[in-house]
Amino acid sequence: MNSMGRGFSRRDVRRMAHSSGKRNSAKRLEEEMTILEQVPPDLQSRLKDVLSQQEEIKVAISTDLQFDGTYGKDWVLVTEKRLIAFNRNGAPTPEVQNIPLEDVESIEIRELHGNNIMKVRTQAGAVEVARYSKRFAPKFAEATPEIESLIDKVKPEALDESKRHRKYVASGKKIRCETCGSPIPRRSDVCPNCVEKGKLIFRLLKYALPFWRVSAPAVLIMMVVRLVDLYPAVLSKQLIDDIFVPATQAITNGQQPEPGAFGQLVLIVLLMVGVNVFTMVASAIRGYMMAWVGQNITLKLRNDAYQHLSVLSLDFYEQRDTGNLMSRITQDVGRLRDFISEGLQNIIGDSMALIYMCIIMFAINWQLALWALIPIPLLIFFTIFFGQKMHKVFHVLWKHYAGISTILASTIPGVRVVKAFTREKYEVGRFRNLTDLIFEGEMNAAKLWTVYHPIMRFIIFFGMIMIWLVGGRQILNDQLTIGGLTLFTNFMMRFFMPVQTLCRMNERFLRAATSAERVFEILDTPPSVADSKDAIDLPDIRGAVEFRDVVFSYDSEKNALNGINFTVKPGEMIGLVGHSGAGKSTLINLITRFYDPQHGEVFIDGHDTRDVKVSTLRKQIGVVLQDPFLFEGTVADNIGYGKPDATRKEIIAAAKAANAHDFIVKFPDGYDTKVGERGSRVSGGERQRISIARAILKNPRILILDEATSSVDTETESRIQEALGRLIQGRTVFAIAHRLSTLKHSNRLIILEEGKVDEIGTHEELIAKGGTYAGLCEKQMELSKIRAL
Amino acid sequence: MQQPIQIEDEIQFLDAKRVKIERNQSEELTVELPDGSTHAPVEPVRAFPLTHLTQYISLLDADQNEIGMIEDIKQLKKADRKVLEEELRKCYFMPKITKVHSLEGRFGVTHWEVDTSRGAAYFDLRSRFDIVSLEGGRVLIKDVDGNRYEIPNYHRLDANSVALLETQI
Ligand SMILES: Nc1ncnc2c1ncn2[C@@H]1O[C@H](COP(=O)(O)OP(=O)(O)OP(=O)(O)O)[C@@H](O)[C@H]1O
Ligand SMILES: [Mg+2]
């Protein structure tokens, strides 16, 4: 390790980062993340006064904040005997706190907003020893149990067990990329450094590559067309120089024009017609070919993106809004197609056209050609200048358009809430604000365009003047023919378009790159819950479930599950009880492997869920989610969703079991009733029963019912239970319910409390125990008595 | 006919003048309520940590139960107010960004090097969704580790910082 890296101030840190960029920050973090860092020399000399002879530093951790609330490095050092804190607190020499480990009663970590504080409690009270930002939270979490074990050595079993910190295990997600070492942002598994294998554009071209048999000839046709396109201009030069000028000369001299002149004229005109017909036909064919290529690319890209989207885990969706994802699949993919099929080809074609023109001009008269090129830098400058302005305007516009789709994506499905709270005006207002902004943005764009075009025309005009002037003089000096001059003026007009396109090339690439980035972000994000390479097919299960020390957090800030342990035998019915937010739904999300725990394991029939293929696992689990979601389609479609080959008979049987059959047949369209988007056309309780039927139809070994009957009346519920009672024979069932009567058939109950198992046992055991569950039961009994009155 | 109760009556703010907020020797907040009960350690929580920094402060006891709410810090006695503000500053660390030096991004992941009101800092963001721009040019940023940063009004920053920021917001 380099010693220079130790004593530097924040400013040095920053400067270093400036010079060598991102990788350095990765390295910097790595050095700072061990719990035995190298202590800087100035502190070491001060340590000499404090430490005894053989005392060895066991833990040395630096902070990135000081107690005065500024960034800076303080230190906590722990030996076998004592804990030493160096706190600079703005002063040049740090203050030293020396706390013998013997005195320590507990180590506390205060988790605050944007920073944490480590406190050490002794008999005399608690002292704060370190303040650090969330970036260092993992390091301190790792160091704390280490310090506690040092305390254990000094005074065994003195620490309060309940206040002890559990051994820190880095969360399941990778923090740093294995190949390049740069930090992987916490919510992703993609290393931004490595994902950029090959530039985006090249990756994009890969999508075009399979169609090279069509696109290569198309490019070729274009190159020919662009060349042939210039031929009429050359022909008209010939027409003037070889026919008209000699003829007029002859006439002024009082002679007859040459006899073959008219024949030549006809020939040239016919050639012109032929060239035009050719370019027309060739362009049409090329256009069709490229449209075919473009649509094929769209097809592939769009399907790939959607296919991958469906593979991605829930956490990906939770962090992005629907409108945004939708626009990636629809708009961005379209933009990419335009770029590959048109943009890129135009760039090639236009460069070719420019090159052809230059060659012809230089061949005819290189001096005049040089003059003619003078306005080109001006053209380039202004196009780029306006391009940059445009880019800004368009960026803002794009954001507003995205805002519109976000509003639509949330208010159209949420229309009931909007209406119930009479917020139509507000939503319309929000929408209108955005459209106003879009209007403004579009007008800004228009303003730029209206200035841009006249300026461009003026520059072209300027070029023409040059040609008239310089070329005219050359004609007078007999260095240029009249036909040559017409050709130059003709080309001058033609320069305008290609130069413009090429200058915008940068912008085009940029825009395509942004779209590509957005599409490839989807394609490159590996699902956080993915089959491991050696994942096996889960064999037909019997339904044993075991949680071993499971810790899970949605956001790495707060643990939703905190050390869950239990075993469920095949065929058991387990009732999950706990306050709202206790972690019940989270627990079952881990059984179905919607998420993976950060720590600990979930076993099904002795298989770690992470070692088996997700699809073979989920196939054997039937779930009724807390807010059942139905798809647009008929009742039968929805019940059969999990088993596409289900017969009508099976569907009806499942509906019967879920006590849904009776109300379904009363619908005028019976099982063919459309449920509407999200099932909005059936009632809440009906929706629940349809989704119970959907889960049962899969004939799963493990059935999960998350508040599956919360929206039905007690009578219906007991009828569902009756039917279920027969069905759940031989199945492992997890049932979550707040209404405890729902769980009366459960073999055992698990009471969750703030992410921990509070109690576990049969109804009778728990009542006898007189704990949380007994309390809950009593309350509900009282309630039902009141109701009964 | 009975009038429905006013919904505001549901919260009862503490009588700020009769609350006593101190710090004990363990550097913890102790709060004595008007009813004479004392609580320690107490954690102050802002109900609106992004918009109303000095109003609606909820006081939580060690079990995270609310012991009361203070409507406005200004109502407190001077000494109490000082202690509470100090504790809030500790509990909410959100430096204000004063200058953006560099900002490199790929795939929406950005690495920032900035100056803040609390000194120079660097951080990484996972996506543009971690940047929230509010009215009046206010920008809130949450980095991958969960640290937060604020720009009170980005238009007031230097031209270079604004140019860098505008690529992101
Ligand atoms: N997708 C999510 N992202 C972040 N936090 C979440 C998410 N889902 C749940 N949580 C949080 O995790 C905790 C446990 O939630 P969970 O849904 O497991 O509760 P529950 O026991 O099912 O409650 P309820 O009885 O209300 O359904 C809660 O604090 C909740 O806020
Ligand atoms: Mg739930």
Question: Can you offer a commentary on this structure?
Answer:
The complex is a heterodimer of chains A (789) and B (169). Chain A is of the alpha+beta class and 789 residues long. Chain A folds into four domains: 3-163, PH-domain like (Roll), CATH 2.30.29; 197-365 and 480-524, ABC transporter transmembrane region fold (Up-down Bundle); 533-620 and 702-762, P-loop containing nucleotide triphosphate hydrolases (Rossmann fold, 3-Layer(aba) Sandwich); 632-699, no CATH class. In chain A, strands 13-14-15-10-16-17 form a six-stranded mixed sheet, with helices on both faces. Chain A has a four-stranded antiparallel sheet with strand order 1-2-3-4, covered by helices on one side. In chain A, a hairpin with a 2-residue loop joins strand 6 and strand 7 (125-133). The longest helix of chain A is centred in the middle third of the chain and has 53 residues, at 424-476. The termini of chain A are far apart. The relative contact order of chain A is 0.06. Chain B has two domains: 7-91, no CATH class; 97-166, no CATH class. Chain B has helices spanning 78-91, 159-166; strands at residues 20-23, 29-32, 38-39, 43-48, 52-60, 66-72, 97-106, 109-116, 119-125, 131-133, 139-142, 148-151. In chain B, strands 1-2-3 form a three-stranded antiparallel sheet. The longest helix of chain B is centred in the middle third of the chain and has 14 residues, at 78-91. The N and C termini of chain B lie far apart (54 Å). The interface between A and B is large, with 51 and 42 residues. Magnesium ion (MG) binds at residues 584-585, 626, 706 of chain A. Residues 318, 554-555, 560, 578, 580-586, 626 of chain A line the site of adenosine-5'-triphosphate (ATP).
